[in-house]
Write a structure and sequence with these properties.
With 482 residues, the chain is mainly beta. Among the domains are: 133 residues; 139 residues, no CATH class. Helix content is 1%, strand content 52%. It has one helix and 53 strands. The chain has a 26-stranded mixed β-sheet. It has a 25-stranded parallel β-sheet, with no helix packed on it. Strands 3-6 form a two-stranded parallel sheet. A hairpin with a 2-residue loop joins strand 51 and strand 52. The protein starts with 13 loop residues before the first strand and ends with a strand.
Length: 482
């Protein structure tokens, strides 16, 4: 009695040992696995070259952290690579290298217009116009080396891309990107999951994308409404170009060119706004520094220092008792239930239910329009239009007023004040340290007529002049002593 058993095929791999140089010539077709071994103490890593007409259908495996695979066929091919530390040379455009299981030992791929698919592994890619795809697995990492004018494309999410040379388009979100100075990056399709970009002196394009950019001296260009946060500029200003973006500054410095931006800034951040084109940037900040260069901005938050150059327009709100400081001349400023110190002259201020103090107008009166405001003149000049305002005088100040029901208040040290346009509905609030009542004021002889004006004189350094007012027209109802 006899029996037969099916034969079991045995496939022997092609072994390329350390120190060996193996060349497959035209017509050679290897379907078995290929094992290329790395360097030993005595020999360099093994080397396998495929010449024109040769092919490999099986997996190419790198062992021992080394070895060279050289495709010189001149025809686009699709290869599977397993293991790390190998050098892969692809001579033909359209070739594909599928790489897996490098285990932290980076492969290096050389070629142009090739595709490199990474499955949970690491690779250096040299050349331009290549496509790198994170096809699966975790912690895919690629380092790109290309010429100054060459672009590579990386597609995938939650991986790491290092651009050491050339330029790169990165498609997908949640990636960590490192870029050398002078490199261009273009980010796409982050889908709400921001990329983290670590770069200084690089160029970053956001195409309806989200990114956190760490480092200084970067130029950031946006296409569409993008979202970006800036960190770690360390005094080297970033520049952002675009409109209708959402921008966060976290202890950073940035020049922002374009209008309709929504900007938030942490304490100590600096921003300089340009070319808003009539579309105000909306800034939410506290204790930040904001420069408005012939631009428009709506700023909410308190404790900010706002500087203007040229024909700037700024609105302040939401200071919540923490005064902003505004530095500039010839600007338009609006305050809505806000508090601000204004340093400089020739400003136009529209205010409602606000508190503002004026400094260093240097003879160039600020113009204030509004009602129900508290206004402090600190050796300053102002024109006031509106009513129901309370004005506090300090030092040598002057006020031209139109309206009514305003209150003008003075400390015991009155300074020298001039008020033009004093109305019968207005009141003067004087210190009881100087006079206790209207009768004591009259009895002291301090209230006199000087030409067409009324003079209230405490001494040579403290006096109030009401221009165009007859002293005899004043009544006790127009005086308050506190």
């Amino acid at each position: 009695m006899s029996s037969s058993h099916p034969s079991i095929p045995v496939i022997s791999p092609l072994n390329v040992i350390a120190g060996a140089i193996v060349v497959l010539h035209s017509g050679a077709n290897i379907s078995a696995p290929v094992m290329i071994y790395g360097a030993t103490d005595d020999d360099v890593g093994g080397s396998l070259t495929l010449q024109s007409g040769a092919s490999i259908g099986g997996v190419v495996m790198f062992f021992g952290g080394g070895g060279v695979f050289n495709d010189a066929t001149g025809a686009a091919s699709n290869y599977q690579f397993f293991g790390g530390g190998g050098a892969i040379h692809l001579s033909s455009h359209g070739s594909i290298a599928n790489i897996s299981n490098t285990a932290g030992d980076w492969n290096s791929v050389y070629g142009s217009q090739v595709t490199v698919n990474l499955n949970g592994c690491e690779a250096n890619v040299f050349g331009g116009d290549n496509l790198v795809a994170f096809t699966g697995g975790l912690n895919n990492q690629v380092s790109l080396y290309g010429g100054a004018t060459q672009w590579n494309t990386v597609v995938g999410s939650q991986g790491t891309t290092i651009v050491s040379g050339g330029n790169a388009s990165v498609v997908g979100g949640g990636d960590t990107i490192y870029a050398a100075a002078g490199v261009w990056l273009s980010l796409y399709a982050t889908n709400g999951v921001a990329d983290a970009v670590n770069a200084s002196g690089a160029f970053v394009i956001l195409n309806d994308a989200e990114a956190a950019i760490i480092g200084g001296g970067d130029a950031i260009l946006t296409s569409g409404a993008s979202t970006l946060s800036l960190w770690g500029t360390n005094g080297s200003w970033d520049a952002v170009y675009g409109s209708d973006n959402t921008i966060s500054l976290i202890g950073a410095q940035a020049s922002i060119v374009g209008g309709g931006e929504t900007i938030s800034a942490s304490a100590g951040s600096w921003m300089s706004l340009y070319a808003t084109g009539g579309r105000a940037d909306n800034v939410s900040a506290t204790d930040a520094y904001i420069i408005v260069n012939s631009a428009q901005a709506a700023i909410s938050g308190g404790g900010n220092n706002v500087f203007t150059t040229g024909a700037a327009s700024v609105s302040l709100s939401g200071t919540d008792g923490v005064w902003d400081t505004f530095w500039g001349s010839g600007a338009q400023l609006a305050l809505a239930s806000a508090e601000a110190s204004i340093v400089g002259g020739d400003n136009f201020v529209a205010a409602s239910n606000a508190a503002l103090s004026l400094y260093q107008t240097n003879g160039h009166a600020d113009a204030i329009a509004g009602a129900h405001n508290s206004i402090y003149l600190m050796d300053a000049q102002a024109q006031l239009q509106g009513g129901h305002d309370t004005v506090y005088f300090n030092g040598a100040s002057s006020l031209s007023v139109s309206g009514g029901d305003d209150a003008f208040c003075f400390n015991a040290a009155m300074g020298t004040a001039t008020i033009s346009g004093f109305d019968l509905s207005d009141t003067l609030a004087l210190s009881v340290s100087d006079w206790t009542s209207y009768q004591s004021l009259l009895g002291s002889g301090a209230l006199t007529q000087v030409g067409a004006d009324t003079l209230i004189r405490l001494d040579a350094n403290n006096a109030i002049t009401l221009t165009g007012v007859q002293a005899s027209s004043l009544t006790a109802a127009q005086f308050v002593f506190t």
